[in-house]
Design a protein that fits this description.
The protein has 126 residues and is of the alpha+beta class. It contains three helices and six strands; from the N terminus they run αββαββββα. It has a single domain, classed as Nuclear Transport Factor 2, Chain: A. β3 and β4 form a beta hairpin. The longest helix has 18 residues.
């Protein structure tokens, strides 16, 4: 199986589980690196468990998600995820998130997200 096929299969498994909020964790490398949520801080959060904790909180904010676009080149991929967000203040919004991945040794190795963090953070406030 080539890198491109592995990358696509990992992402399909990840996003199927992610949308259902279950059964995506097995695709993540133990030394996973995540950058996102605060683009003023580009230091990665390292570790599978740390990422799982971030996603537990993030999953509370979206009702549905789907992959709008996926481009895979060897061990790298760029995905546009479309999310229906529901915030504690009652505000709802639909938004796209640019999700850039790398794969290593048959696991998702890193993720960098780009999205409108200002709108997101402002709506987390009561």
């Amino acid at each position: 199986m080539n890198d491109q096929t592995t990358t696509r299969q990992l992402l399909e498994t990840y996003y199927k589980g992610f949308a259902e909020k279950a059964n995506w964790e097995s695709t993540i490398a133990d030394d996973f690196e995540y950058i996102g949520g605060d683009m003023n801080n580009t230091s990665p959060v390292v570790g599978k468990q740390a990422y799982i904790e971030i996603i537990k909180r993030f999953s509370q904010r979206f009702e549905t998600m789907k992959v709008s676009q996926m481009i895979v080149e060897e061990d790298k991929a760029s995905v546009i995820g479309n999310y229906d967000f529901q915030f504690p203040n009652g505000f709802k919004i639909n938004g796209n998130v640019s999700e850039n991945w790398t794969v290593k040794n048959g696991k998702l190795q890193s993720l960098t997200l780009y999205f409108d963090t200002l709108t997101f953070m402002n709506n987390l406030k009561p």
